[in-house]
Amino acid sequence: MCSGVLNGFHRAWRWTPLRVLMKPLQLVTTPTRNRRLNELIGLLALTAAILLFLSLISYRPTDPSWNTVGGIGSGTRPAHNWIGLIGAWMADLLLQFEGVTAFCLPLVIAASTVFGSYPAADARRRTSPATP
Fold first, then answer.
1. How much is the pTM?
2. Chain-centre distance of CA 94, in angstroms?
């Protein structure tokens, strides 16, 4: 009886929209056999994490953003964010939705890039002290 319920849950999970949306993310984050492509994806992700971190630490509430007067087309005042207007908008959006925990997002991106860039067999070989 219980296995039938779990089996039905597993079949329902297989076709949920969340699983469909996660498939492209899983394909992008899985290392390929092409080492240069892995390095390029890692470099782009680290660059994005650094730019996101810089935009978050240089955030000012008076910069033009989603909820302040003087958005993109106004040109009344420049953005004082180190990444510019796009950085001001991204920092405001992340801080509005996540608050202070938005500072963890660049760290998560950087950590997943560094630790996720090697296949599992290579990661085990590097971290285990006694390998046969």
1. 0.66
2. 12
81: Cβ–Cβ under 8 A, 6 or more apart, which residues? 55, 58, 59, 60, 63, 87, 88, 91
**pLDDT one-digit tens code per residue, 71-116:** 555 556 778 899 988 999 999 999 999 999 999 999 988 888 877 6
| pLDDT 10s digits, 13-38 | 555 666 666 677 677 667 777 878 88
Written as one letter, the residue type at 103 is F
In our burial notation (b when 16+ CB lie closer than 10 A, e otherwise), range 67-92 reads eeeeeeeeeeeebebebeeebbbbbb
Task: Report which of 115, 126, 117 is spatially closest to residue 36, judged by C-alpha positions.
Answer: 117
Q: Where are the domains of the chain?
A: 1-30, 33-127
Q: Would you say 22 and 14 are in contact if contact means Cβ atoms under 8 Å apart?
A: no
